[in-house]
């Protein structure tokens, strides 16, 4: 089973894109919570999900007005999971249940008609032989002459129900007339008028108040320090109550009869709901991909190939600062791909972008790139960020080793994203460990990307190498970094974030000391560091101290 843990999910900032995937029906929202990524061996099903999104795109290009119409139908579609559960459990559906059932059938029929009229063959909501059955179900829930999406227990369902309701209405009219006559008599007798609530409010401690308190036709409803409110008493009419019970009994009988009839089509109802749920997931997948200008990923058994890839969440954050992200081009084969480059060069962003795209693709979503090829994998894991675990009492280095050990022993083939392995301990041991881990991964069948500053790692045989293009030093040194508030913006402006393939023999730029000088570190300290770097003195001291 494919797997990534909560730490990887958080480190890759998947939540931003995940939250943009929003099904419109309650069934679709519930299905999204249960959806699982595609696994190796499910390439055919994966391709089908992606192909359907392509077909949605083509259909909407030919019929753009259908976008709003389909979305409207899906948004109005109620959840009938509870009603179907009742049918399956031999329970009687009540008035609210039938309202939801009719709403579903109404919107379902509207959606099917819309898609058939505009020749949409993306997903078949139902075979054509089911269309008369849907119409029959709707007609059974709408026995009157006026077709509507609402539901009530119409008189047309039962002659006895009609007769009882008519009798009850006559008695209700008679009772209203009696009440109105009584109110008129009271108002004529006392010279008062009722308020909008049908009650009378009179001043306290007046003859009028005393007279009304003595009148058995009214009762005191409320009183304050200044006035008293009177109303007619409620009269319990036993005949009307008996009739109401009979009406409710007949309505219940109609619900029982409808339940028995719909139980016979229960399998089709369940199938139609499943088809709507699948279409809603596909519809929302497609629209999520549109929000980040996604492209359909293609299957490749041996490599991850990205062109023009971005991380939409990071792109949004960068846009808020008035900047734009640089799309990355990267090929990750089996074994290890190493990325080197200056600090603030976007190496970690590249890792997050690779991981995010892999996760989205495994859920059958279009990905934020101009081209993407990748295999289906058993797992995706990352070791990014600080990684300290106060709960386990682990330092960054300790937490990093624990996570790495877990994923190195993970069964199946996966994608491993490593950010500066070994930097949490002393440089000499960290470099040796980073070399050993990279060498081990280069011999395996997993896909690993390792961001590192260690020159020794970059010299290992059998790895694919990239570097960040880096700073434009002539322009930066001519312009300078300026004030504290401006240097970050100037660094970003002069940084080329593109990933450039490099050969093992190619020397990597050492930008740290030049940047330190620009940032204001005293020249004598930078010169001393250059001398030590050139003589290897720092390595000798480290070796002596370690010995």
TrEMBL record:
InterPro entries with a match to the protein in the record: DNA_mismatch_repair_MutS_C, DNA_mismatch_repair_MutS_core, DNA_mismatch_repair_MutS_sf, MutS, P-loop_NTPase
A Pfam entry, by short name: MutS_V
Domain of life assignment: Bacteria
Keywords attached to this entry: ATP-binding, DNA damage, DNA repair, DNA-binding, Nucleotide-binding
DNA mismatch repair proteins mutS family domain boundaries: 334-534
The DNA mismatch repair protein MutS core domain, residue ranges: 7-317
Family, as annotated: Belongs to the DNA mismatch repair MutS family.
Protein's recorded name: MutS domain V
Naturally occurring in which organism (per UniProt): Laceyella tengchongensis
């Amino acid at each position: 089973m494919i797997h990534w843990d909560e730490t990887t999910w958080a480190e890759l900032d998947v939540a931003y894109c995940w939250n943009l995937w929003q099904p419109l029906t309650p069934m679709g929202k519930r299905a999204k919570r249960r959806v699982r990524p595609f696994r190796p061996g499910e390439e055919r099903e994966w391709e089908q999900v992606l192909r359907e999104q392509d077909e949605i795109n083509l259909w909407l290009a030919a019929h753009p007005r259908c976008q709003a119409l389909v979305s409207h139908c899906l948004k109005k579609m109620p959840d009938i999971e509870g009603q179907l559960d009742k049918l399956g459990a031999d329970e009687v559906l009540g008035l609210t249940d039938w309202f939801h059932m009719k709403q579903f059938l109404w919107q379902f029929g509207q959606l099917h008609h819309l898609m058939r009229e505009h020749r949409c063959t993306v997903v078949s909501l139902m075979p054509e032989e089911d269309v008369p059955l849907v119409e029959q179900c709707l007609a059974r829930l709408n026995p009157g002459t006026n077709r509507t999406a609402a539901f009530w227990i119409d008189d047309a369902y039962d002659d006895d129900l009609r007769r009882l309701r008519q009798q009850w209405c006559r008695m209700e009219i008679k009772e209203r007339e009696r009440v109105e006559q009584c109110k008129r008599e009271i108002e004529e007798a006392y010279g008062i008028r009722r308020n909008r609530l049908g009650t009378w409010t009179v001043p306290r401690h007046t003859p009028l108040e005393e007279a009304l308190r003595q009148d058995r036709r009214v009762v005191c409803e409320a009183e304050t320090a200044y006035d008293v409110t009177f109303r007619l008493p409620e009269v319990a009419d036993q005949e009307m109550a008996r009739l109401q019970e009979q009406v409710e009994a007949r309505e219940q009988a109609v619900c029982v009869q409808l339940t028995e009839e719909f139980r016979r089509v229960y399998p089709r109802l369940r199938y139609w709901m499943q088809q709507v749920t699948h279409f809603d997931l596909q519809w929302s997948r497609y629209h999520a991909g549109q929000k980040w200008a996604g492209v359909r990923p293609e299957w490749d058994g041996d490599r991850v190939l990205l062109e023009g890839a971005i991380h939409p969440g990071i792109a949004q954050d960068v846009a808020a600062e008035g900047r734009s992200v640089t799309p990355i081009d990267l090929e990750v084969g089996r074994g290890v791909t190493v990325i080197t480059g200056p600090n603030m060069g976007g190496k970690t962003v590249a890792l997050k972008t690779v991981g995010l795209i892999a996760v989205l693709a495994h859920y059958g979503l279009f990905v934020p790139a101009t081209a993407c090829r990748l295999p289906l994998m058993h797992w995706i894991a990352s070791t990014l960020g600080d990684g300290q675990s106060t709960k386990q009492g682990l330092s960054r280095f300790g937490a990093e080793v624990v996570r790495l050990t877990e994923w190195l022993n993970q069964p199946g083939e996966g994608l491993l994203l490593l950010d500066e392995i070994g930097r949490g301990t002393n440089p000499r041991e960290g470099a040796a460990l980073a070399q050993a881990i990279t060498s081990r991964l280069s011999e395996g069948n997993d896909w690993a990307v390792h961001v590192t500053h260690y020159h020794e790692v970059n010299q290992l045989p059998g790895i694919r190498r990239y570097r960040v293009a880096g700073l434009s030093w002539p322009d930066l040194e001519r312009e300078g970094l300026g004030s504290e508030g401006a240097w970050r913006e100037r660094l970003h402006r002069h940084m080329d974030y593109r990933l450039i393939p490099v050969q093992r023999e190619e020397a990597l730029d050492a930008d740290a000391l030049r940047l330190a000088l620009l940032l204001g570190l005293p020249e004598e300290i930078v010169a001393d560091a250059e001398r030590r770097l050139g003589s290897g003195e720092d390595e000798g001291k480290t070796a002596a101290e370690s010995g």
